[in-house]
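note to self — DONT lose this again. spent like an hour looking for the file last time. sequence + predicted structure for the chain T wanted, 63 res
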Amino acid sequence: MDHDEEGYSIDAFDFDVVCETFRSSVRELNLAEEHWVDHAKALLREFTDSAPDDDMISRIVGR
């Protein structure tokens, strides 16, 4: 993971992994849509060890 002064960045491959993990886990857990944002934040935090960016969260959940 690349870390910079303003926060963090995630490469395209890792971002795709996070997105696919999110989609799979939402299906497997039968997660209600109102919980998607929190779930995406937790996944991104786990992958990056940083506070999630709202724009990335929106892209992960498809909003």
